[in-house]
Specification:
Elements (H helix, E strand, L loop, with lengths): L3 E6 L2 H12 L5 H4 L6 E4 L4 E6 L1 H9 L5 E5 H7 L4 E5 L5 E8 L11 E5 L2 H10 L4 E5 L6 H4 L5 E6 L3 H5 L2 E10 L1 E5 L1 H6 L1 H17 L1
Parallel strand pairs: 1-3, 1-4, 7-8, 7-9
Antiparallel strand pairs: 2-3, 4-11, 5-11, 6-9, 6-10
Amino acid sequence: MKPIRIALTKGRLEKDTVALFEKLGFDCTQLHNKGRKLILTIPDANIEVVLAKAADVITYIEHGVCDMGVVGKDTILEYGGSFFEVTDLGFGKCKFALAGKQGEDFYTGYAEKTIATKYPNVTRRFFEEKGMDVRIVKIEGSVELAPLLNLADGIVDIVETGTTLRENGLEVYEDVAQVSARLIVNTVSLKMYQNEIEKIIGQIESVCAKA
């Protein structure tokens, strides 16, 4: 029988997902002793695990080379895609937020605002819903630098504790969207391997409900 292939986002979501698998009683020995391997197996569950960057998880699911995936809602909101988003896994919680220099009123004045972000699509939709025209500057590194260097009036970024903002004289102006890890499924795989995939989904949802 073909193994169900699950793409995991490397890093913290990977660790949290492995912990979830262990709660299900899966043998995660290979996942703990992975070395530099990127494709690993959970033999007792007939699952193959692929480790990938967040945006690539969506690509692998969309193209059908992976059947299921675990990815943050932030990546889904930014990149979109054609797949089923089936379960909120309840970990990896954070939020998108609009932030800028402390004590400033972001919404005053009529001048077009400049926003720095790693997430231009999320940012564009947020301000379109407000009916605001903004100029978006894509930043790859520490987006907090942009308002400090007067490159931007504000930033849209992932915020967990807000410590980095505070330590750099910034504050959250407004929450944009809540984020957590999501289980996604390829649309064709769900039809072809319905029983196997629905069994895994059921097991995961059972554990998540108890958390």
